[in-house]
Specification:
Elements: H1 2-29, H2 36-43, H3 47-54, H4 57-86, H5 91-106, H6 113-125, H7 129-153, H8 159-174, H9 182-186, H10 196-214
Helix pairs in contact: 1-2, 1-4, 1-6, 3-4, 4-5, 4-7, 5-8, 5-10, 7-8, 8-10
Length: 231
């Protein structure tokens, strides 16, 4: 029994090592620029083990992608379900539950960090049918849940506007998923993209205001501590 447990643990570790190596190399070199041989070398395993676990390079990429996207989506939907069960949802809470798991993963190397941030951005922006199929399989069910939740919080929001709002929010966030230093440069040091709370509070306020603008709701969404505008 102990030998079986040790063997299973070894298989699990090898598989995780392969996924980690694939994530790094795919992010650096792209799908076409990365070979199974290179991934095996980076993971310190025989190439045959990659084919045993994943069969093809496409299968390996899909498993690598699903590992991170699945973890992010489980956190998102658990938070969304909690809000809905409470019987009260706000636009700000919905947006935060959507963005926070993504940004936190992008800032945490143990959860993919900038490697997965690069991969999800390039995959989502690709018009390759296989890439879009991967995005659909990984995110569309979750996305429709969030679009429905936005309409629950803003009943006058049309399905078309809720869909575009969701896409605008996700698109803007993916470019800021992991720190690049650009906010630091553009602001001459007045802010930093390493500060996840500063990033999320601003992204949430910006997104909520945009969604309310779709339905002509002039309710002000202000950052914590910001003064009300003078009239």
């Amino acid at each position: 029994m102990p030998q079986t447990t040790a063997k299973n643990r070894s298989k699990s570790t090898s598989k995780e090592d392969i996924l980690d190596a694939a994530e790094r190399l795919f992010a650096r070199r792209g799908f076409d620029g990365t070979s199974m041989r290179e991934i095996a070398q980076a993971a310190g395993v025989a190439q045959a083990l990659l084919h045993y676990h994943f069969r093809t390079k496409e299968g390996l990429f899909e498993a690598m992608f699903a590992r991170r996207s699945g973890a992010i989506n489980r956190i998102r939907l658990a938070r969304l379900d909690t809000m809905i069960a409470r019987g009260q949802v706000t636009v700000e809470e919905i947006v935060d539950s959507l963005l926070r798991p993504t940004v936190e993963a992008g800032h945490d190397p143990s959860r993919g960090g900038h490697y997965f941030a690069n991969l999800i951005l390039t995959t989502a922006a690709s018009n390759n049918p296989w890439a879009q199929g991967l995005i659909a399989a990984s995110y569309d069910v979750m996305a429709k849940r969030y679009i429905a939740a936005l309409r629950m919080a803003l009943p006058e929001l049309s399905l078309a506007d809720a869909t575009w709002g969701y896409l605008f929010i996700i698109g803007a966030t993916l470019t800021q998923m992991s720190p690049t230093g650009r906010a630091d440069r553009l602001s001459d040091g007045a802010t930093t993209d390493k500060d996840t709370e500063a990033l999320l509070s601003r992204a949430g306020a910006f997104a909520a205001a945009g969604l309310r603008a779709f339905v002509g709701d002039n309710t002000q969404t202000r950052l914590p501590g910001a003064a009300a505008p003078s009239r």
